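Summary of Year 1 activities. Much of the first year was spent building the evaluation harness for sequence design. The harness presents a backbone, in tokenized form, and records the residue chosen at every position. We chose the following record to illustrate the format because it has been used consistently in internal testing since the harness was completed.
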């Protein structure tokens, strides 16, 4: 079992930055993929970014490429989502997730690919 707890959400003005954290507890393995998803009101949950625990290889959604960065700190079992140049379209609940599937990152971009989920943290970007 893996437990995930997100933190760092809040209210920010357009153009601002936020850093989200996802602390993992329980047993994790180097082949796990950690992902960030987001869900805006009335919309489906969508993939944002992902990273391999072991290799730190990353994958990005086109909508955040160049603005968001994902990283992990293995000694703290924590994954970070650094968000910059935020726009109101980035407003959503952001979820951290863990996939146990052994697959390439580009194949792990839907919620059904992920087994464990955090409770979510709200990010609101004002115009």
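For this record, the design step produced the sequence shown next.
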């Amino acid at each position: 079992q893996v437990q995930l707890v997100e933190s760092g959400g809040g209210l920010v003005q357009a153009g601002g930055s936020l850093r989200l954290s996802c602390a993992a507890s329980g047993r994790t393995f180097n082949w796990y993929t950690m992902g960030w998803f987001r869900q805006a009101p009335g919309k489906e949950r969508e993939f944002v970014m992902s990273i391999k625990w072991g290799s730190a290889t990353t994958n990005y959604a086109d909508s955040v490429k160049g603005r968001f960065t994902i990283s992990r700190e293995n000694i703290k079992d924590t994954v970070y989502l650094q968000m910059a140049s935020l726009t109101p379209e980035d407003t959503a609940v952001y979820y951290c997730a863990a996939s146990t599937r052994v697959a390439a990152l580009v194949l792990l971009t839907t919620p059904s690919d992920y087994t464990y989920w955090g409770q979510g943290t709200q990010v609101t970007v004002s115009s």
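The chain has no helices and eleven strands. Quantitative recovery figures across the full test set are reported in Table 2.
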